[in-house]
Amino acid sequence: MALRFLTKSMPLAVARTQRRFLAPSASSKHMSTVVGSGEFPGGQTVPYVNTIAVVDPKEKDVIPAYRILDQQGKLVPGGQVPEGLTEEVVVDLYKGMIRLNQMDNVFYDAQRQGRISFYMTAFGEEGTLFGSAAAIKPRDMVFAQYREAGVLMYRGFTLDQFADQLFSNEGDLGKGRQMPVHYGSKELNYQTVSSPLATQLPQAAGAAYGFKVAKEDRIAICYFGEGAASEGDFHAALNFAATRDCPVLYFARNNGYAISTPVKDQFRGDGIASRGAGYGIPVIRVDGNDLFAVYEVTKKARELIMTGGRPVLVEAMSYRQGHHSTSDDSTRYREVSEIKYWKDTNCPINRLKLYMLDQGWWSEERDQALKDAERTNVLQALAKAEAKGIPEMQTMFDDVYHEKPRHIQEQEQEMLDHVAKYPDHYASDGH
Amino acid sequence: MLGRSIAGMRRFASTAAPATERMNMFTALNDAMRVAMETDPTAAVFGEDVAFGGVFRCTVDLREQFGEDRVFNSPLCEQGIAGFAIGYASVGRTAIAEIQFADYIFPAFDQIVNEAAKFRYRSGNQWDCGKLTFRAPYGAVGHGAHYHSQSPEAYFAHTPGLKVVIPRNPVQAKGLLLASIRDPNPVVFFEPKALYRASVAEVPVGDFTIPLGQADIVRSGTDVTLVGWGAQMRVLEETCDMAEEAGVSCELIDLQTILPWDVDTIEQSVRKTGRLIVSHEAPRTGGFAGEIASTIQERCFLSLEAPIMRVTGYDTPFPLAHEKFYLPDALKNFEAIKKIVNY
Question: Do residues A206 and A351 both lie within one domain?
Fold first, then answer.
């Protein structure tokens, strides 16, 4: 056995490792000489060297982020507007970002007024959401974390549908069972959001594997924050996706914070993107505040997945401009000046607007009119949703199982009898 | 193979006795998975080491028959197996996922409890992962100590949205596993590994299922009702023999499905016998016997002639050298019978 390992294809292996090892290390003080190589199970060929080779990630170059538009909304040198992003498409995407932004403004305030129980905004990440959403196909299956309402909005989820979910009313597709912002739509291939972080990651691999073996022309796209990437399910997912060659796009939103935890307390490597290599997954990092770049990168990633038959990891670098949620005051752990800096100098909406103004595709008047109109639309949806009642109380017992087992039927009857006995006590609307 | 299952179904439809084949429990489970995969082209079997046939031989030859896309090894990561299975099922495909030992299902607890169990409910029935079954060997095996012996069914019985199923012999194993795979809800299916080779029976060939949620009256009796499941049924059979010699008639019931469990069958039996003993390998405190005892006490208060007794594992981790002393064996159950009839 050992003999076979030593002799089999050794010259080729040495040639390959010399190419790989010696060429890039011209600047390195760890110049090692390859003294042969060994084959290990799994087909790995490992070169042997005659000095200790410490591979320190800190000595590696930072993975660069792709950018098309600079912070003034100008094309960077060599930058081109992605194919397919015509004036009409760009203006539509911009309108989507404004709609999301107005929805966030209105519902954030509605929570502050106690009209809904909870809310989470996507301030600062609108470019990431609309840029990626536009680059995938409607048949692609979305697995979201919770700060991706823009993707669902792009797919056609209406303001009424958002509002119904937020008010957990009788119009809510989720039947009023989950906290606000836990959206889902079967029709729009958007799997229902759940609170436990990163659980959707291995699920996305499983769904994508299903598409692959069924030879369906679709992928799964799975969004998650840089904090969620610390969960064990991140590791599980990328390793499963790689070993089963799943057509899944892992899309990390690195916005600098997981609630109060800055990235320096979250990881010490080069962000999330640097982890792809360890799993054998190609990675692309992108400026998440540049809608053009996010669109182009997501499109490229999808192509790589479909042609290469393997997963791709994208990391979008951005900044969480808003609080983590309505239960959070982010100024307790970060400077107001920091938030202002990002809002003023690196906001995805402003960057696209500057570009559109430059092109003559947009005007300040249209901008203000759009914002006003969308605000009105959201307020109307809010008013409609607020006027609707919650689902019938006994629907609480539906859908635990496909069928309703006897013990749950009995408990349903028990609840109905009890409420019938004390109707006044249970007369409130439940919010 | 397909012909065999069709022939089997036909035999079932006719009045003639169905053809059977001698199988042990692992071959019966293997046969169930083969039928499931023949009848459902979306069904896939995966987990740690299943490709070469599994460490307990349950998946032997399936890869050869159905190909590596449908029978494959996963990386060694239980939370990944569970999450992957949920995702696969969420797009309408049948996932048969193996956890190598029930002792190692806990890394997947979050995926099973927070995700699989609530998948349908939380989405308002827009999404579900009902075509999902987790198989896991469970229970004492003579020398398994802490991490190759556990019986974790009670943890899952506390989770609305799941079904929990445990067979006692090869016939039940095949029929219940096929029913679990086809049930439109996520099922956790625990296999008594002590019986993989030890339990042998004539098993109907081809396609058949045994309904979930129904207990099975294994022996009729008049004095005491004995309830158990899985490997414990063998112990309780022995207990029944000992009791019979002592002149006590036991009604022995295999619960088969832990969640949702068959209250009616137990209730009817206890109304008749007036006495109930529930026995399981798992520790007593928080064990599923507590749920049965409490429910039957509520329903049969006036029929009970003695307190309901639980004969279970002790509230310790599962020991190695002292397994014999730890287990709720036939003699301990017989002692309980003596106490309950003399109460």
Answer: yes
pLDDT in tens, A66-93: 999 999 999 999 999 999 999 999 999 9
Task: Decide if B124 and A237 are in contact by the 8 Å CB cutoff.
Answer: no
B88 closest CB neighbour out of A174, A199, A210: A210
Q: Which of B38, B48, B98, B148 is catalytic?
A: B148
Q: What is the pLDDT of residues A387-423, one digit of tens each?
A: 999 999 999 999 999 999 999 999 999 999 999 999 9
Q: What residues have CB less than 8 Å from A348, skipping those under 6 apart?
A: A97, A124, A125, A126, A127, A128, A288, A289, A290, A291, A318
Mean pLDDT, range A32-41, rounded to an integer: 89
CATH number for the domain harbouring residue A172: 3.40.50.970
Separation in Å, CA of A298 to nearest CA in chain B = 22
Could you read off the pLDDT of A304-322 as tens digits, one per residue? 999 999 999 999 999 999 9
Cβ contact B133:B189 at 8 Å: yes
- CA end-to-end span of chain B, whole Å? 56
CB pair distance less than 8 Å for B107 and A233: no
Say which DSSP state A230 is in.
G
Are A260 and A349 in a shared domain? yes
When divided into structural domains, chain A yields a total of 2
Note the ipTM here. Answer: 0.94
Measured between beta carbons, the chain B residues lying within 8 angstroms of A221 are: none
A100 and A170 assigned to the same domain: yes
Check whether residue A324 and residue A249 sit in a common domain: yes
Q: A412 and A287: one domain?
A: no
pLDDT in tens, B120-151: 999 999 999 999 999 999 999 999 999 999 99
Interface contacts A/B by beta carbons within 8 Å:
154
Between the alpha carbon of residue A407 and those of residues A188, B262, B277, the distances in Å are 34, 9, 22
